[in-house]
Specification:
The chain is an alpha+beta fold. It folds into 2 domains: 3-56, Orthogonal Bundle (Arc Repressor Mutant, subunit A), CATH 1.10.10; 67-146, Alpha-Beta Plaits (2-Layer Sandwich). 31% of the residues lie in helices and 20% in strands. β3 and β4 form a beta hairpin.
Length: 169
């Protein structure tokens, strides 16, 4: 179900995405909105699942995880030991259990999965691919793309919202 977000909703979401530690009082002042309205709008957007959760964004550099890579993976679609076919979704789920993995996407095209990982250095990326990733049953081949520099990385979705006439919050 789609809901139309008004300008106040979008302003509140933008402030929360920029700093989720802002109080409702601070948001109310910044948006020139009564605090009760801010509380109600935030609660409604949480209930609707528009706001899924609040979290801290950690600095990979400060945690010595300065090396990132994107890995394209192909699934073999063979059979498991019990004879049941291996699925793309099962392989993706297995990959999500690896601690280095930040993202796993099922994609179209010549490859089946796109995986984002972080590690301390290129050697650790190589060890991850050889010793962990390629051992997953149903994984046929991989292609690792090392990140030289990240120009943009964001969790913001507000720039892609298209205003359509739908239900209002």
């Amino acid at each position: 179900m789609n809901f139309k977000l008004d300008d106040k909703d979008l302003s509140i979401l933008q402030l929360i995405q920029e700093d989720s530690k802002l109080t409702a009082n601070q948001i109310a002042k910044k948006t020139n909105t009564p605090i009760t309205t801010v509380f109600a709008k935030i609660k409604r957007m949480e209930e609707l699942g528009i706001i899924k959760q609040y979290r801290a964004i950690l600095s990979p550099e400060k945690l010595n995880l300065t090396t990132a890579a994107f890995i394209l993976a192909a699934v073999s679609y063979g059979n498991k030991a019990d004879g049941a076919p291996i699925t793309q979704r099962e392989v993706a789920e297995e990959i999500t259990r690896l601690s280095e993995v930040q993202e796993v996407h099922i994609i179209t095209g010549d490859w089946d999965l796109l995986i984002k990982i972080r590690a301390e250095n290129v050697n650790d990326i190589g060890k991850f691919v050889v010793d962990k990733l390629r051992r997953i049953n149903g994984l046929q081949k991989t292609l690792t793309c090392m990140v030289f520099e990240t120009v943009k990385e964001t969790t913001s979705l507000l720039r892609v919202i298209k205003k359509k006439p739908t239900e209002s919050l």
